[in-house]
Amino acid sequence: MHKKKYFILVIPMVVTYLVFFAIDASLASASALAPAGNTTAAKEVQTKYTFIEKWGSFGTGRGQFNRPHDVAFDSTGNVYVSDRDNNRVQKFTPNGTFIKTWGSKGSKDGQFSIPYSLAIDNSDNIYVADRENSRIQKFDNNGNFIAKYGTDGKGDGQFHRPEDVRIESHTGDIYVTDTYNNRIERFDKNFTFITKWGSKGSSNGQFQLPHAIGFDSKGNVYVDELERPGVQVFDSDGKFLRKWGSVGTADGQFSLPQEHLWIDSRDHLYLVDGAPNPRVQIFDPNGNFLGKVGSPCKMSTGEGCIDPDGPGPLSLGDGQFSKPEHVAIDSEGKMYVVDRGNHRIQVFAPVINESTK
C-alpha cells in the first residue's frame, strides 16, 4: 500500500506544540483494522492521527477548566468550550489562545447549572444545553444572551436534564437529547417544536438515557446512550433504521457509561468510549470498526501515563486521556478531544491513506 506522508508545521504560541512526530498506534493513532461489522466494503480507509497540541489545566482562571465537557467551532475557526463545573463557556482562537468567557452559576438568563453540550448555527449563534436548568440557552458569539427554550417537564418542548443539542446543517433544524425523559425532540431553526420520538426501554427506538446525537450526509440521526452500548440510527423523523454495538473492551466494543459522538464529512463516526476504557473509536456508518485513538492516563497521579517518545518533544501523557467526554472535527479535519479528567483539550491532526483492495 502506498502511503502518503503529511508533515505539520506549527508555530509555538501559548500551548504545547509537537511537530514531525506521529504518536505510536497504542497511544494516539487510528489505523484500519479488521472491521467489526460488514466486511464486504470494496475500499479500506486508513486514518491516523498525530498529536499536535494541548491546552488547559485545573482551575478557575482564564483558560483553565474544571471538568470541561464539549468543544465547538464558529465559522472563523474559533473554539468554544463548555467549562462544566465552572458554569461558564470559554472562547479561544484555533490555537488555544484565550479570548473571553461568560456565565456563572445560577438560573437567570445567561447563567448555568452544569452547561453540557454546545451547538453553533450558520450565524455563529451558540446554543448551550443547560442541563440542571432543563433548558437550552442561545447566545451570540460574544456571549450576549439572546433567548432560552424549554422548562422542566414532559410536554412538547419541555426537557428534563437535556445533555446534547445539535443542528442539522442542511435544514437548520435543532435536535435535543431529552436525556431523562428518554426521547429525542426536534425543532425548526426558530425553536418551534416539530416532533419527538423515544421512550424508556431496550427495544428498537427506545432509549436508556440518550446522551449524544449526530447526523450523516443523508440527514440520518445517530444516537448513543449512557446505559446501552453502541448506536441507534434513525431517519430525520425518528423512524428506526438500524443499531450496532456491544459491551466490552475489544476494538468496536464499548464501556459504559458511553460518552459523545461526532460524524465527519466522510460519514465516519467518532465515538468516545466510557471512563473505564478512555479512547475515541472510529467507525463507518454501518458500524465497521476503522481505528482508535488514546489510552488511559491520569495526570494528577501519573497513573498509566507514559512519555511516548522518551527524550523527544512529546511530554508525559500526550495523546492519552482520563474520562474523555466529547470529540469534534474542525473544518481542517483536526480532531479535538475534551480530556475531562485531565482538565484540558487535546488536538490531533489527520494523516489519511487510502488503498483499493
Counting H and I runs of at least 4 residues, what is the number of helices? 1
Largest sheet: 5 strands, antiparallel
Tell me roughly what share of residues is in helical segments: under 10%
Ranges with pLDDT <50 over ≥5 residues? 1-44
Mean pLDDT: 87
- Reading the helices and strands in chain order gives EHEEEEEEEEEEEEEEEEEEEEEEEE
Radius of gyration from the CA trace? Answer: 19 Å
Structural shape = globular
What is the tally of beta strands?
Answer: 25
Describe it.
The chain is mainly beta and 357 residues long. The protein has one helix at residues 25-28; strands spanning 16-17, 43-55, 68-73, 79-83, 88-92, 98-102, 115-120, 126-130, 135-139, 145-149, 164-167, 174-178, 183-187, 193-197, 210-215, 221-225, 231-234, 240-244, 261-263, 269-272, 280-283, 289-293, 327-329, 335-339, 344-356. It is built from one helix and 25 strands. It has a five-stranded antiparallel beta sheet with strand order 1-2-25-24-23, with no helix packed on it. A four-stranded antiparallel beta sheet has the order 3-4-5-6, with no helix packed on it. The chain has a four-stranded antiparallel beta sheet with strand order 7-8-9-10, with no helix packed on it. Strand 13 and strand 14 (193-197) form a beta hairpin. It starts with 15 loop residues before the first strand and ends with a strand.
